[in-house]
Amino acid sequence: MFDKRPPIRALEDPNVIQVLLVHHLGLLRSGLAALLNDASDLQVRDVPWSNDPGRLRALRADVCVVDMDGPGAPDVAGMAELCRHMTSTKCGLLVLATPGRPGALRRAYDAQALGFVNKDATPQKLLEGIRQVAAGKRYVDESLAHDLLRSAEMPLTARELSVLSLAAKGATVSEIARRLHLSHGTIRNYMSAITRKTGARNRVDAIRISQGAGWV
Questions:
Q1: What is the pLDDT of residues 176-201, one digit of tens each?
Q2: Cβ atoms of residues 41 and 66 within 8 Å
């Protein structure tokens, strides 16, 4: 009785862009969905990633908008899996990102994201990005362009960034292995490669260097 969202528009209307909004914070997610639903050419469904990632793959969308940041945000493995599903349904990925974090942009790019919008951008920027991605075009918020270029020069692979990002949040080797569905030995090999590529003395030093560079 408290749902004030506009009535559902006909799914068969080819002029209506179906948007799946994935955000880990309920209040922000519902507020952003309400804002986007004000546009006559959008129909938005908002869901948390942590609820049931597998369920998202069964939902229909033309564009998936994902927040890159926060403890409940999807990691690169989850995003890549979602992108593989999107390929079959002609759905494009648009990420909401924070400037100064080229590592997050690199992971999103490798996960086949088409759109990149600054989380501090105007609603009009986000609407423009959604419409461009829905049309199959790449959209890069100009405030993120430099970071996206920097991300191409990073020495770490997307998988190494994923491992390092989890390690930076305090995850143990066992926890990282479980999250990424890899063996303990593989995770240790990744950490050794990360330490070597960053010129660090150890894992803690690699995290410090990477955080200072905005990679994680």
A1: 999 888 999 999 999 999 999 989 99
A2: no
Laid out side by side, the sheet with 115-118 consists of: 42-47, 17-22, 63-67, 92-97, 115-118, 139-140
Do the Cβ atoms of 198 and 209 come closer than 8 Å? yes
Angstrom distance (rounded) from CA 45 to CA 152: 33
Instruction: Supply the pTM of this predicted model.
Output: 0.73
User: Hey, which bits of the chain come out as E strands?
Assistant: 17-22, 42-47, 63-67, 92-97, 115-118, 139-140
Angle at 109 between CA 209 and CA 15, to 5 degrees: 145
- Per-residue pLDDT, 10: 42
Residue among 50, 72, 45, 77 at smallest CA distance from 186: 77
The residue among 29, 74, 68, 33 whose CA lies nearest residue 54 is 74
Cα separation, 194 vs 202, in Å, equals 9
pLDDT digits (tens, 9 = 90+) for 10-44: 444 668 999 988 887 778 888 899 999 999 999 99
- Residue 67 and residue 85 in contact, taking contact as beta carbons nearer than 8 Å: no
Q: Which two tokens stand for residue 27?
A: 């209040």
Q: Indicate the SS3 state at residue 45.
A: strand
Residue 193 has which token pair?
Answer: 């490669």
